[in-house]
Here is the input.
Amino acid sequence: MTVFSARQPSRVLGVDPGLTRCGLGVVDGVPGRPPRLVATGVVRTDADQDIAGRLLTIEQEIERWLTEYQPDTVAVERVFSQHNVRTVMGTAQAGAVAIVCAARRGLPVVLHTPSEVKAAVTGNGRADKDQVTTMVMRLLRMTERPQPADAADALALAICHLWRAPAIRARQAVQPRQQPVQSSQPVQSRQPAQSRQPAQSRQAVQSRQPGQASAAARPAPGRVSADRVFGDPA
Here is the structure.
């Protein structure tokens, strides 16, 4: 008889990063079973406030959530390049704050792309926000729509990681470590370009001794050319 041990439920904090609104959502569950809602909310900052103060507000609120709900993992949305560079920078900065807060406590951090989250929750990687929110409400048995949409996105991130975690661990376990390939034969060094000459040319050069000229090119010893003494005949 095979005995299967019951899986311990895992708690995930999902973070949908943003400067103006940073969505947070905590979900309990195990793969293959409906997840359970723990908490959801949004951290808001004033656009007129300086960037340092806004990031500090987000950091303090995330720390409070980590202390209160004690998640096992933190899932953060992976930021992609968009046309509005200023928006992307703020989103990346808020996401980095969440990563640092988790790392400070030794919690594992995972990053999921928006298409991965949509595919995990709705089955369609191109689903819109309304479809994602509807499926989040159905999966978590919520009677009221989470507001704003950032809160629903954070819950979707947490659900996504709950269901994808076994596949991620299995892929990491079987992925071989890549090692540099070492050749058993020594590598032959290339000769300088000036030494690479045609064989016939090299033989001709080697046959000549230094300082030795061609016999036809100079007169024999002890003889003087008649042209030198008498000049050209008339």
